[in-house]
Write a structure and sequence with these properties.
It contains nine helices and two strands, in the order αααααββαααα. By secondary structure, it is mainly alpha-helical. The chain folds into two domains: 149 residues, no CATH class; 123 residues. α2 runs antiparallel to α3.
Length: 282
Amino acid sequence: MTIDYGPPRVVHALRGLLLATAAATAGVELLNYWYAPEHGFGLAVRTGWALLRTVGWLILIWHVRRGRAAARPLGLILAVTTVFAVGRLVVPRTGTPPTAGVIGFAVLTALCLVVVVLLYRHPAVQGHLVRHPKKIVFTREGIEVREAVPKRPPLAAWAITARVAAFTYSPLMLVPALISVAELDTRPEWILAVGFWFVAGFAASYAVLLSTFFLLRGKPWAPKLLLTVTLGVLVVDLPLCYLLLGTDGLIRDGAPLVAAAVLVSYSLWRVARLPAPAAAPA
């Protein structure tokens, strides 16, 4: 008889750490909003988008509890984008950032760093995050819900990381596009550009969905397609950030997108260096 002692203690500690990170994310963002010298439409949108990351941390806790392999790339992109999202709220347009905001940002950055280290470096956590999602399968006994182990070779962790990071392109484009709507009161000639920005943001999600679909199936041309999508996203978003939101908008809203693009590019580079998977036995 095999006794199941449950997940290791470090996994329980990781879940508590993720809960603390979610709370710290919301707390620091609200603190920055409170100390901000002006509460304009742009700050409200950026704060609201940053607060949505709290939901992302709660989803990550669920994945860790279930032992899902997707928890690692999700945790990595959440940590990276959270640091950028909160960092752009700490620094005001003018003057120096408040001391409380700087301290909160430092604590949040440390929490995110520890989360990434545990997800990617701790052997007990890596051994726990190996499960696959459950699916409905048809058997001789009827319909069952069981863990569906994929028939194709296991996906490289960096391929999953590239997929998760690329899916942030669309929201990272739509947030500054929404902020730029407030600029149309004084600059109505840019209405077509703003409309194009929204269309490009939604189109990016479908382009990423298509390219990552083939990427996870090992198509040799899929990384080039995803890199092309990445380049197109940067070419569209960064100039519009500068033209409509200025240098401040380029730093606050363009930097997180650049960080996601760098993570996607690095992940694809790591995937290209992996040896070709052995053919599955007949």
